[in-house]
Structure formats: C-alpha cells, structure tokens
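[SOLVED] Predicted holo structure with 5,10-Methenyltetrahydrofolate

Edit: marking solved, answer below. Original request kept for reference. I posted the sequence and ligand SMILES and asked for the 3D complex as structure tokens.
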Amino acid sequence: MSLRIDGKKISSDIKEELKEQVKQLKEEGVSVCLAVIQVGNDPASSVYVNNKKKACAYIGIESQAYELPEETTQEELLALIDRLNKDDHVNGILVQLPVPAHMDEKEIIQAISPAKDVDGFHPQSVGALSTGEPGFVSCTPAGIIQLLKRSGISIDGKDCVVVGRSNIVGKPMAMLLLRENGTVTICHSHTKNLKEVCQRADILVAAIGKPKFFDESYVKDGAVVIDVGIHRNAENKLCGDVDYDKVADKVSAITPVPGGVGPMTIAMLMNNCVEAALRMNNR
Ligand SMILES: Nc1nc(=O)c2c([nH]1)NC[C@@H]1CN(c3ccc(C(=O)N[C@@H](CCC(=O)O)C(=O)O)cc3)C=[N+]21
C-alpha cells in the first residue's frame, strides 16, 4: 500500500495557518493585498484567477482583480504594473500567464517589482533562489517541497530526478531539491535513456507535459512520485503526467491529479503574499 499524498488537506492546513497569521497582522495594523491581472478571457485562466480570489477571501487577504480586454496593448499593461509597483497598499502583483500572443511575456515579468513578485518569476527572484539570497520562490515547486516535508519524506541525500526544465517548474524544482541536499538530475527532451534515469529516482518529479506518460516501468519499487501534470480529457476529467493506477502499488508515496500539486500552488501563492507584506513592513 502506498501513501496517497493529500495536497488538498496539506494546502488547507497551510491556508489555516496563514489565516491565523493574517488575523494577527491585522490586529497589529498590517494588511495584505494581492493584485491579480488577467488579459483576455481564456476560460481555464478565469477558473484559476477565480480560485486565487477565493483563497484570498478565505485567508483575509484583500484581492484586486484587473480583467483587461484581449486587445490591451503592452504599454497599457506596463503602465498598470508601474502604478501597482508604486502603490504602497499593494503587496503582491500577479499577471496570469499565458498572456495574449501580441504581448511580450518576458518584458512583463521583468516589469514587476521583485519586492512584489509573488510568482517568483522575475530574474532577480530566480537568481536569488540559486545563490540562496532571500527572494520569492515559484509557487508550484515551493508547494512540492511542502508536500514532501509535511508527509515526513526526507530529501537529504536522495536521488531526485526532475523530468522537465521549464522556468516555472523544472528549473526552480531542481534548485529547491538541491537546497535540501538532494542529488538532482534534470531530464528533458534530449535525455538519453530517460526510463533508466527515472528508475534510479528515490524522488521522481514528473513535469513532462504528456498525459499518463509515466507507467510502472519508469519507477523503482518504493519511490516517491510527484505528478505536476494537468491534462483535461474530452469529458473534462483531469489527469496528470503519471498513470496513477499503474504506478500507485509500486511506490511508497504518490500525488494524485487532481488534489495533489495543484492546490499547493495556490497555498504557496498566498504564503508569498503574506511574506511580501511582512517584508514591506520590515518584519
Ligand atoms: N502568473 C501565473 N501564476 C501561476 O501560478 C499560474 C499561471 N500564471 N497560469 C496558469 C498556471 C496553472 N496554475 C494552477 C493553479 C492551481 C491549480 C489547481 O488548484 N488544480 C486543482 C484542480 C483545479 C481544477 O479542477 O481545474 C488540482 O490539481 O487539484 C492548477 C494550476 C497556476 N498557474
């Protein structure tokens, strides 16, 4: 029998802790405010943005929603970011990705003040993660570390294999596992013998972006499997990068999709907002 790592439960524990902390801060006169910007009305993005608003409301974080039309120009968006950067009331700024094709995502990310970069996507935040300076950490990989720690799974000295090298998941995930003294391998589309490398993993992080790609032949007996994939089939049912039913009996612990990594992403975003407010108030 393997442990089904319950991301819903762990994320709700974290939200409970944050709610208490925010209440305490309010009594001391410190408020927390997140600005969420969405350009265009991609339905999937709208669902995520809504979930973020709901989480803010639950915890006691003020949320400002900026729903901009698809035709918004780069200059208009940069002007809004600039205004929010200068607004002392706003602690965190998030621009929902992806942005429409006519926009320059890189320039947008770099326009957000690193002090308010609750997504952890700014190059300064990314650099700080690799040198160990204080800075915001990308929410999904930060959430995965919390899932492991709060499930009593140690990372120290373990063989950790991360499959995927994106800026928002794979690369920061590798840096965080390294910070926890894991021995880290990053795999990608040019990796030879992907299966053999995965079979060595004590902790396998699957972020390849292909539905049910990993079956039992990729995992070692007793490994820990973290599934970062989110795919929706024709019936709107969610699945991950891992074929859960084929893998679950062979491993010691595994995250489901939904209810694994996804909910942690939002919990860590809330955590980063509180951290931004603490820093802005010199706490
Ligand atoms: N600037 C920016 N920051 C982000 O953090 C960001 C983004 N853009 N763009 C899109 C991705 C995706 N993302 C998710 C958040 C929560 C779940 C989540 O809660 N998933 C639930 C299921 C939710 C459902 O039913 O769809 C689960 O896995 O159990 C998933 C995905 C944040 N993203």
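OP edit: Residues 139-262 form a domain with the Rossmann fold fold (CATH 3.40.50.720). Thanks to everyone who chimed in.
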